[in-house]
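Troubleshooting log. The previous structure file for this entry was overwritten by mistake, so regenerating from the original sequence record. Sequence copied from the archived sheet and checked twice against the printout by T.R.
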Amino acid sequence: MAKLLKVADELKGLERREWQLWALITGLFLAFVFFISLAYFYWRFETVGIKEYTLNVLLLGFVGLSLLFCAHVILTELTIKRLRNKIVEAERSKLEAERNKMIELREAYKELDSIIKDMADSLIVIDLNGKITAVNKATCTLLGYKEEELIDKPAGMLFTEEPPFKGRDFEKLIKGDYIRDYELTCVTKSGDKIPVIFSSSVMRDKDDNVIGIVGVAHNGREIERLRERDRNLQIALGLIKLPLKYSLKMGNIYFIKEKSLKKSYETFLIQITHGSQGLCFTKLHPEEVRRMYGLTKTPIIWLTFRTDESERTIPFTKLDELTATVSEYVNSVKNSVVLIDCFNHIKLLNGFEQAMKFLYTMKRMISGGDSNLLITIDPDDFTDAQLSILEKKAEELK
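Regenerated output below.
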Protein backbone atom coordinates (compact mmCIF):
# COMPACT_ATOMS: atom_id res chain seq x y z
CA MET A 1 0.00 0.00 0.00
CA ALA A 2 2.83 2.43 0.88
CA LYS A 3 4.54 1.62 -2.42
CA LEU A 4 1.33 2.39 -4.28
CA LEU A 5 1.02 5.79 -2.57
CA LYS A 6 4.62 6.59 -3.46
CA VAL A 7 3.94 5.85 -7.13
CA ALA A 8 0.81 8.02 -7.04
CA ASP A 9 2.76 10.96 -5.54
CA GLU A 10 5.43 10.57 -8.22
CA LEU A 11 2.73 10.61 -10.90
CA LYS A 12 1.20 13.79 -9.53
CA GLY A 13 4.64 15.50 -9.54
CA LEU A 14 5.20 14.54 -13.16
CA GLU A 15 1.78 15.81 -14.16
CA ARG A 16 2.51 19.18 -12.50
CA ARG A 17 5.87 19.46 -14.30
CA GLU A 18 4.16 18.49 -17.55
CA TRP A 19 1.82 21.48 -17.37
CA GLN A 20 4.74 23.78 -16.52
CA LEU A 21 6.64 22.57 -19.62
CA TRP A 22 3.65 23.09 -21.85
CA ALA A 23 3.25 26.62 -20.49
CA LEU A 24 6.96 27.32 -21.12
CA ILE A 25 6.77 26.01 -24.70
CA THR A 26 3.67 28.11 -25.38
CA GLY A 27 5.46 31.20 -24.05
CA LEU A 28 8.55 30.53 -26.17
CA PHE A 29 6.41 29.98 -29.24
CA LEU A 30 4.59 33.28 -28.74
CA ALA A 31 7.90 35.06 -28.12
CA PHE A 32 9.32 33.51 -31.29
CA VAL A 33 6.30 34.62 -33.33
CA PHE A 34 6.63 38.10 -31.92
CA PHE A 35 10.37 38.18 -32.64
CA ILE A 36 9.94 36.95 -36.24
CA SER A 37 7.15 39.41 -36.88
CA LEU A 38 9.26 42.25 -35.54
CA ALA A 39 12.39 41.16 -37.48
CA TYR A 40 10.39 40.78 -40.67
CA PHE A 41 8.93 44.23 -40.24
CA TYR A 42 12.31 45.89 -39.77
CA TRP A 43 13.92 43.80 -42.51
CA ARG A 44 11.36 44.83 -45.00
CA PHE A 45 11.73 48.50 -44.32
CA GLU A 46 15.55 48.14 -44.00
CA THR A 47 15.68 50.17 -40.81
CA VAL A 48 17.79 47.58 -39.10
CA GLY A 49 20.83 45.96 -40.69
CA ILE A 50 20.14 42.38 -39.77
CA LYS A 51 21.68 39.83 -42.09
CA GLU A 52 19.70 36.89 -43.46
CA TYR A 53 22.03 34.24 -41.95
CA THR A 54 21.54 35.75 -38.48
CA LEU A 55 17.81 35.27 -38.73
CA ASN A 56 18.30 31.67 -39.91
CA VAL A 57 20.56 30.91 -36.95
CA LEU A 58 17.97 32.23 -34.56
CA LEU A 59 15.27 30.19 -36.27
CA LEU A 60 17.32 26.99 -36.15
CA GLY A 61 18.18 27.57 -32.52
CA PHE A 62 14.56 28.01 -31.61
CA VAL A 63 13.55 24.93 -33.62
CA GLY A 64 16.24 22.85 -31.90
CA LEU A 65 15.22 24.11 -28.47
CA SER A 66 11.58 23.35 -29.31
CA LEU A 67 12.51 19.80 -30.39
CA LEU A 68 14.33 19.24 -27.13
CA PHE A 69 11.34 20.40 -25.18
CA CYS A 70 9.04 18.21 -27.28
CA ALA A 71 11.26 15.16 -26.68
CA HIS A 72 11.20 15.88 -22.97
CA VAL A 73 7.42 16.18 -23.03
CA ILE A 74 7.08 12.91 -24.93
CA LEU A 75 9.35 11.12 -22.46
CA THR A 76 7.36 12.59 -19.58
CA GLU A 77 4.10 11.41 -21.17
CA LEU A 78 5.53 7.92 -21.57
CA THR A 79 6.64 7.93 -17.93
CA ILE A 80 3.21 9.10 -16.81
CA LYS A 81 1.56 6.38 -18.87
CA ARG A 82 3.90 3.75 -17.38
CA LEU A 83 3.13 4.96 -13.86
CA ARG A 84 -0.58 5.01 -14.56
CA ASN A 85 -0.41 1.44 -15.86
CA LYS A 86 1.54 0.52 -12.77
CA ILE A 87 -1.14 2.03 -10.53
CA VAL A 88 -3.90 0.31 -12.51
CA GLU A 89 -2.09 -3.02 -12.26
CA ALA A 90 -1.55 -2.53 -8.54
CA GLU A 91 -5.22 -1.67 -8.08
CA ARG A 92 -6.21 -4.69 -10.16
CA SER A 93 -3.97 -6.93 -8.02
CA LYS A 94 -5.43 -5.42 -4.87
CA LEU A 95 -8.99 -5.96 -6.08
CA GLU A 96 -8.14 -9.53 -7.11
CA ALA A 97 -6.63 -10.22 -3.68
CA GLU A 98 -9.70 -8.76 -1.96
CA ARG A 99 -11.96 -10.80 -4.24
CA ASN A 100 -10.08 -14.01 -3.42
CA LYS A 101 -10.24 -13.13 0.27
CA MET A 102 -13.99 -12.56 0.02
CA ILE A 103 -14.40 -15.90 -1.73
CA GLU A 104 -12.38 -17.62 1.02
CA LEU A 105 -14.41 -15.86 3.71
CA ARG A 106 -17.65 -16.80 1.95
CA GLU A 107 -16.60 -20.45 1.73
CA ALA A 108 -15.46 -20.40 5.36
CA TYR A 109 -18.78 -18.84 6.37
CA LYS A 110 -20.72 -21.48 4.42
CA GLU A 111 -18.72 -24.24 6.09
CA LEU A 112 -19.18 -22.70 9.54
CA ASP A 113 -22.87 -22.11 8.88
CA SER A 114 -23.24 -25.73 7.77
CA ILE A 115 -21.47 -26.96 10.92
CA ILE A 116 -23.67 -24.79 13.14
CA LYS A 117 -26.88 -25.82 11.39
CA ASP A 118 -26.01 -29.52 11.40
CA MET A 119 -24.52 -29.73 14.90
CA ALA A 120 -26.35 -32.13 17.19
CA ASP A 121 -26.65 -29.69 20.10
CA SER A 122 -28.99 -26.71 20.12
CA LEU A 123 -27.39 -23.32 19.47
CA ILE A 124 -29.03 -19.96 20.29
CA VAL A 125 -27.59 -16.49 19.59
CA ILE A 126 -29.03 -13.65 21.68
CA ASP A 127 -28.51 -9.88 21.44
CA LEU A 128 -27.97 -7.54 24.38
CA ASN A 129 -31.71 -6.91 24.61
CA GLY A 130 -32.35 -10.59 25.27
CA LYS A 131 -33.87 -11.26 21.84
CA ILE A 132 -33.03 -14.27 19.68
CA THR A 133 -31.04 -13.41 16.55
CA ALA A 134 -30.14 -16.89 15.30
CA VAL A 135 -30.87 -20.58 15.99
CA ASN A 136 -29.75 -23.80 14.36
CA LYS A 137 -31.75 -26.76 13.08
CA ALA A 138 -31.28 -28.78 16.28
CA THR A 139 -32.96 -26.01 18.31
CA CYS A 140 -35.99 -25.98 16.02
CA THR A 141 -36.22 -29.79 16.13
CA LEU A 142 -35.91 -29.92 19.92
CA LEU A 143 -38.47 -27.19 20.62
CA GLY A 144 -40.85 -27.75 17.71
CA TYR A 145 -40.55 -24.22 16.31
CA LYS A 146 -39.72 -22.94 12.86
CA GLU A 147 -36.72 -20.64 12.65
CA GLU A 148 -38.81 -17.58 11.72
CA GLU A 149 -41.01 -18.18 14.78
CA LEU A 150 -38.04 -17.66 17.10
CA ILE A 151 -36.10 -14.79 15.48
CA ASP A 152 -36.56 -11.45 17.33
CA LYS A 153 -38.51 -13.18 20.11
CA PRO A 154 -37.42 -12.85 23.77
CA ALA A 155 -35.15 -15.74 24.70
CA GLY A 156 -36.82 -16.02 28.10
CA MET A 157 -39.89 -17.57 26.46
CA LEU A 158 -37.89 -20.79 25.95
CA PHE A 159 -37.09 -21.38 29.62
CA THR A 160 -39.09 -21.94 32.78
CA GLU A 161 -36.34 -20.43 34.93
CA GLU A 162 -34.46 -17.15 34.52
CA PRO A 163 -31.80 -17.88 31.89
CA PRO A 164 -28.10 -17.27 32.65
CA PHE A 165 -27.84 -14.13 30.52
CA LYS A 166 -29.50 -11.78 32.96
CA GLY A 167 -28.49 -10.26 36.29
CA ARG A 168 -25.30 -11.47 37.95
CA ASP A 169 -24.71 -14.23 35.44
CA PHE A 170 -24.73 -11.66 32.64
CA GLU A 171 -22.22 -9.54 34.56
CA LYS A 172 -19.95 -12.59 34.75
CA LEU A 173 -20.22 -13.02 30.98
CA ILE A 174 -19.38 -9.35 30.36
CA LYS A 175 -16.23 -9.69 32.48
CA GLY A 176 -14.98 -12.40 30.17
CA ASP A 177 -16.15 -15.40 32.14
CA TYR A 178 -18.50 -18.03 30.73
CA ILE A 179 -21.42 -20.07 32.04
CA ARG A 180 -20.98 -23.81 31.81
CA ASP A 181 -23.24 -26.80 32.56
CA TYR A 182 -26.13 -24.65 33.78
CA GLU A 183 -29.21 -26.83 34.33
CA LEU A 184 -32.36 -25.33 32.81
CA THR A 185 -35.73 -26.49 31.60
CA CYS A 186 -36.80 -25.60 28.07
CA VAL A 187 -40.43 -25.23 27.07
CA THR A 188 -41.39 -26.57 23.64
CA LYS A 189 -44.00 -25.05 21.35
CA SER A 190 -46.50 -27.68 22.51
CA GLY A 191 -45.79 -26.89 26.17
CA ASP A 192 -43.63 -29.93 26.97
CA LYS A 193 -40.72 -29.37 29.31
CA ILE A 194 -37.27 -30.68 28.41
CA PRO A 195 -34.28 -30.57 30.78
CA VAL A 196 -31.14 -29.15 29.16
CA ILE A 197 -27.55 -28.47 30.14
CA PHE A 198 -26.86 -24.89 29.04
CA SER A 199 -23.47 -23.25 28.42
CA SER A 200 -22.90 -19.72 27.13
CA SER A 201 -20.31 -17.05 26.43
CA VAL A 202 -20.30 -13.53 24.97
CA MET A 203 -19.58 -12.47 21.40
CA ARG A 204 -17.36 -9.44 20.81
CA ASP A 205 -16.63 -7.24 17.81
CA LYS A 206 -13.17 -6.21 16.56
CA ASP A 207 -13.05 -3.43 19.16
CA ASP A 208 -13.71 -5.94 21.96
CA ASN A 209 -17.23 -4.62 22.58
CA VAL A 210 -19.85 -7.16 23.67
CA ILE A 211 -22.42 -7.55 20.89
CA GLY A 212 -24.32 -10.65 21.98
CA ILE A 213 -24.41 -14.01 23.70
CA VAL A 214 -24.08 -17.45 22.16
CA GLY A 215 -25.49 -20.42 24.07
CA VAL A 216 -25.34 -24.17 23.50
CA ALA A 217 -27.92 -26.49 25.06
CA HIS A 218 -27.40 -30.23 25.46
CA ASN A 219 -30.58 -32.31 25.56
CA GLY A 220 -30.84 -33.47 29.16
CA ARG A 221 -33.00 -36.42 28.12
CA GLU A 222 -30.23 -37.72 25.87
CA ILE A 223 -27.67 -37.24 28.65
CA GLU A 224 -29.95 -39.08 31.06
CA ARG A 225 -30.41 -41.87 28.52
CA LEU A 226 -26.65 -42.27 28.21
CA ARG A 227 -26.28 -42.31 31.98
CA GLU A 228 -29.00 -44.93 32.21
CA ARG A 229 -27.30 -47.04 29.54
CA ASP A 230 -24.02 -46.84 31.43
CA ARG A 231 -25.77 -47.78 34.65
CA ASN A 232 -27.56 -50.71 33.00
CA LEU A 233 -24.28 -51.92 31.56
CA GLN A 234 -22.67 -51.82 34.99
CA ILE A 235 -25.65 -53.72 36.41
CA ALA A 236 -25.38 -56.37 33.70
CA LEU A 237 -21.65 -56.75 34.33
CA GLY A 238 -22.23 -57.09 38.04
CA LEU A 239 -20.38 -53.87 38.88
CA ILE A 240 -23.53 -52.56 40.54
CA LYS A 241 -25.59 -54.92 42.69
CA LEU A 242 -29.12 -53.61 42.95
CA PRO A 243 -31.36 -54.78 45.76
CA LEU A 244 -34.13 -57.17 44.82
CA LYS A 245 -37.05 -54.74 44.67
CA TYR A 246 -39.64 -57.35 43.87
CA SER A 247 -39.84 -60.80 45.34
CA LEU A 248 -41.21 -62.61 42.30
CA LYS A 249 -42.90 -65.91 42.93
CA MET A 250 -41.84 -68.60 40.52
CA GLY A 251 -44.50 -69.75 38.05
CA ASN A 252 -46.25 -66.35 37.76
CA ILE A 253 -46.93 -63.76 35.05
CA TYR A 254 -46.34 -60.10 35.92
CA PHE A 255 -47.25 -57.04 33.88
CA ILE A 256 -45.73 -53.56 34.11
CA LYS A 257 -47.66 -50.47 33.09
CA GLU A 258 -45.44 -47.88 31.44
CA LYS A 259 -44.94 -45.98 28.20
CA SER A 260 -41.18 -46.38 28.33
CA LEU A 261 -39.33 -49.62 28.97
CA LYS A 262 -37.21 -48.37 31.86
CA LYS A 263 -38.91 -50.22 34.71
CA SER A 264 -39.37 -53.41 32.69
CA TYR A 265 -35.71 -53.77 31.77
CA GLU A 266 -34.53 -52.70 35.21
CA THR A 267 -36.65 -55.48 36.76
CA PHE A 268 -35.40 -57.92 34.13
CA LEU A 269 -31.76 -56.94 34.81
CA ILE A 270 -32.17 -57.26 38.58
CA GLN A 271 -33.54 -60.79 38.20
CA ILE A 272 -30.59 -61.75 35.98
CA THR A 273 -27.98 -60.26 38.33
CA HIS A 274 -29.55 -62.26 41.17
CA GLY A 275 -29.10 -65.57 39.42
CA SER A 276 -31.97 -65.97 36.93
CA GLN A 277 -31.39 -66.90 33.28
CA GLY A 278 -33.11 -64.48 30.91
CA LEU A 279 -34.83 -64.60 27.53
CA CYS A 280 -35.94 -61.35 25.91
CA PHE A 281 -38.58 -60.75 23.22
CA THR A 282 -38.40 -57.15 21.99
CA LYS A 283 -39.85 -54.77 19.42
CA LEU A 284 -36.47 -53.00 19.28
CA HIS A 285 -33.49 -54.12 17.26
CA PRO A 286 -31.58 -56.62 19.45
CA GLU A 287 -28.32 -54.73 18.94
CA GLU A 288 -29.89 -51.62 20.41
CA VAL A 289 -31.12 -53.60 23.43
CA ARG A 290 -27.64 -55.05 23.97
CA ARG A 291 -26.09 -51.60 23.74
CA MET A 292 -28.64 -49.94 26.01
CA TYR A 293 -28.89 -52.60 28.69
CA GLY A 294 -25.65 -54.53 28.45
CA LEU A 295 -27.42 -57.84 27.70
CA THR A 296 -24.50 -59.32 25.81
CA LYS A 297 -25.02 -62.89 27.07
CA THR A 298 -28.82 -62.94 27.18
CA PRO A 299 -30.64 -64.44 24.15
CA ILE A 300 -32.74 -61.75 22.45
CA ILE A 301 -35.43 -62.45 19.85
CA TRP A 302 -36.72 -59.65 17.65
CA LEU A 303 -40.51 -59.50 17.21
CA THR A 304 -40.87 -57.97 13.76
CA PHE A 305 -42.14 -58.60 10.26
CA ARG A 306 -38.67 -57.94 8.89
CA THR A 307 -36.02 -60.57 8.28
CA ASP A 308 -32.47 -60.26 9.53
CA GLU A 309 -29.74 -62.81 8.84
CA SER A 310 -27.79 -61.78 11.94
CA GLU A 311 -30.75 -61.95 14.37
CA ARG A 312 -33.51 -64.42 15.10
CA THR A 313 -36.90 -62.90 14.30
CA ILE A 314 -40.51 -63.91 14.89
CA PRO A 315 -43.46 -62.02 13.34
CA PHE A 316 -45.95 -60.53 15.82
CA THR A 317 -48.73 -62.65 14.34
CA LYS A 318 -46.90 -65.99 14.69
CA LEU A 319 -48.15 -66.63 18.24
CA ASP A 320 -47.68 -70.40 17.88
CA GLU A 321 -43.98 -69.94 17.10
CA LEU A 322 -43.65 -67.49 20.00
CA THR A 323 -45.36 -69.93 22.37
CA ALA A 324 -43.15 -72.83 21.23
CA THR A 325 -39.99 -70.76 21.73
CA VAL A 326 -40.98 -69.78 25.29
CA SER A 327 -41.98 -73.38 26.08
CA GLU A 328 -38.67 -74.75 24.85
CA TYR A 329 -36.71 -72.24 26.91
CA VAL A 330 -38.55 -72.58 30.25
CA ASN A 331 -38.49 -76.37 30.00
CA SER A 332 -34.75 -76.50 29.37
CA VAL A 333 -33.53 -73.67 31.62
CA LYS A 334 -34.15 -73.67 35.34
CA ASN A 335 -34.75 -70.49 37.32
CA SER A 336 -35.50 -68.40 34.21
CA VAL A 337 -37.22 -65.09 33.55
CA VAL A 338 -38.81 -64.17 30.19
CA LEU A 339 -39.51 -60.55 29.14
CA ILE A 340 -41.92 -59.50 26.37
CA ASP A 341 -41.64 -55.71 26.03
CA CYS A 342 -44.33 -55.26 23.35
CA PHE A 343 -47.58 -56.89 24.47
CA ASN A 344 -49.42 -53.87 23.03
CA HIS A 345 -48.25 -54.80 19.54
CA ILE A 346 -49.36 -58.42 20.03
CA LYS A 347 -52.81 -57.21 21.09
CA LEU A 348 -53.04 -54.67 18.27
CA LEU A 349 -52.00 -57.05 15.48
CA ASN A 350 -53.82 -60.17 16.70
CA GLY A 351 -56.79 -58.71 18.52
CA PHE A 352 -57.45 -58.65 22.25
CA GLU A 353 -59.10 -62.09 22.31
CA GLN A 354 -56.15 -63.84 20.62
CA ALA A 355 -53.71 -61.94 22.85
CA MET A 356 -55.57 -63.20 25.95
CA LYS A 357 -55.54 -66.77 24.61
CA PHE A 358 -51.77 -66.46 24.18
CA LEU A 359 -51.43 -65.12 27.72
CA TYR A 360 -53.58 -67.96 29.07
CA THR A 361 -51.34 -70.50 27.30
CA MET A 362 -48.30 -68.81 28.84
CA LYS A 363 -49.88 -68.99 32.29
CA ARG A 364 -50.56 -72.73 32.00
CA MET A 365 -47.03 -73.29 30.75
CA ILE A 366 -45.31 -71.35 33.54
CA SER A 367 -47.61 -72.21 36.47
CA GLY A 368 -46.01 -74.60 38.87
CA GLY A 369 -42.56 -74.22 37.31
CA ASP A 370 -39.48 -72.22 38.27
CA SER A 371 -39.84 -69.49 35.63
CA ASN A 372 -41.46 -66.05 35.48
CA LEU A 373 -42.91 -64.05 32.59
CA LEU A 374 -42.72 -60.23 32.51
CA ILE A 375 -44.83 -58.31 30.00
CA THR A 376 -44.88 -54.56 29.33
CA ILE A 377 -48.13 -52.79 28.48
CA ASP A 378 -49.09 -49.20 27.72
CA PRO A 379 -52.40 -48.74 29.55
CA ASP A 380 -53.52 -46.08 27.06
CA ASP A 381 -53.96 -48.85 24.45
CA PHE A 382 -56.37 -50.83 26.64
CA THR A 383 -59.91 -50.12 27.79
CA ASP A 384 -60.79 -50.38 31.46
CA ALA A 385 -62.64 -53.64 30.75
CA GLN A 386 -59.60 -55.09 28.98
CA LEU A 387 -57.31 -54.06 31.85
CA SER A 388 -59.69 -55.74 34.28
CA ILE A 389 -59.48 -59.00 32.31
CA LEU A 390 -55.69 -58.70 32.09
CA GLU A 391 -55.40 -58.29 35.84
CA LYS A 392 -57.10 -61.67 36.28
CA LYS A 393 -54.47 -63.37 34.11
CA ALA A 394 -51.40 -61.61 35.53
CA GLU A 395 -50.20 -59.66 38.55
CA GLU A 396 -49.17 -56.02 38.25
CA LEU A 397 -45.76 -54.89 39.46
CA LYS A 398 -46.20 -51.46 40.98
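The CA atoms of residues 178 and 201 lie 5 Å apart. Archived copy saved in two places this time.
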